[in-house]
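Supplementary Note 3. Input sequence used for the single-chain structure prediction.
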Amino acid sequence: MAPVELNLVPVGSAKAAPSGGAPAPSHDPAFDPAPDPARGPRRWLFWTVTMLGLGGAGVAFVYKIAEFLFTMGSTEVQGFADVPVTVYFVVATGWLCLLVWCFLSGKFTDLERAKYDFLAKEEEYERQGQ
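The predicted structure, written as discrete structure tokens, is reproduced below.
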């Protein structure tokens, strides 16, 4: 069986990147997927399940924190989880800071760009024979 070559970023039709990076592909309707009539119901189902899962996890998280705070005030098992919960809060705060930094620095914009940069770089390596 002969190898199949997939070239998603034609060299002649690529635009120069505004930031001086790899070229960005021009919009080509041939690369657009065909409309999917079942996409609407599937998208609705996906978001419904996602929101229910996140809602359930949020309720469980709030319950766990409330239970921890009530336990800390009682004399029964005072201090049973001081260190683990403190470490949990420090790690969660670190992840929250990372999320805020990514959002504020624009890391969540143009998420599709990385794959085009990768494909363009791979095509460049193949042209050079590496």
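Helices lie at 39-73, 82-104, 113-128. The chain has three helices and two strands.
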